[in-house]
Amino acid sequence: MPPRIRSAAEDDLPALAHLDAEVFPAEPYPFYVLRQFFDLYSDHLLVLADGHTLYGYVLATSPKAGLSWILSLAITQDLQGQGLGRRLMVESLSHLRSEGVHEVRLTVDPDNDPAVFLYRHLGFVLAGDLRKDYFGPGEHRLLMTLAL
Predict the structure, then answer these.
(1) Which H or E element spans position 34?
(2) Which stretches of the chain are assigned E, i.e. beta strand?
(3) For 115, left (φ over 0), alpha (ψ -120 to 50), or beta?
(4) Phi and psi of 146, rounded to 5°?
(5) Secondary element (H or E) of residue 97
(6) Torsion of the alpha carbons at 28, 31, 35 and 40, rounded to the nearest 10
(7) Reduced to 3 states, what is the DSSP secondary structure of residue 88?
(8) Is 74 exposed, middle or buried (0-12, 13-18, 19+ CB in 10 A)?
């Protein structure tokens, strides 16, 4: 069965934790954080799966005053560069738009060229200069925003 996008289910959490550790080995979300994100944002946690394997996910916050944040986007390493992250983002953005979101924000590692390229291709623009130490010492980020 080809992978399809669907809402995450509680029993996806172990696979989500495994995928997050694969894609972000230096600082994956701890399981308990993924659990809390699921409890808070399950309506905005989409996964790409084929019924047996989870290949990716995107997590957005619930809208607040027309604003939402993309907290994470991950695709298993062996499938990166095949448009799956784009598919997840397009679906998530469409869902947010239907809920009345008019602005989406995200942060990205400035050295993650493929992610920066994807976000720019989707219409995100830089919001100011590099944010030094955004996530702590040496953890610089670009803040990007998209008007829906």
Answers:
(1) helix 31-41
(2) 4-7, 45-49, 54-60, 67-75, 103-108, 125-126, 142-147
(3) alpha
(4) -135, 125
(5) helix 84-98
(6) -30
(7) helix
(8) buried
CA 67 – CA 147 distance, rounded (Å) = 10
**pLDDT tens per residue across span 29-57:** 999 999 999 999 999 999 999 988 999 99
Rounded to two decimals, the pTM is 0.93
Closest CA to 77 of 29, 119, 19: 19
- Structure tokens given for 147: 């008007």
Question: What residue has token string 């944002």?
Answer: 41
CATH architecture for the domain at 4-147: 3-Layer(aba) Sandwich (3.40)
Domain layout of the chain by residue ranges: 4-147
Residues of the chain whose pLDDT is less than 50? none
Q: Which helix (H) or strand (E) holds 119?
A: helix 113-121
Residues 135, 56: Cα–Cα separation, whole Å: 23
Order across the sheet with 54-60: list the strands.
4-7, 45-49, 54-60, 67-75, 103-108, 142-147, 125-126
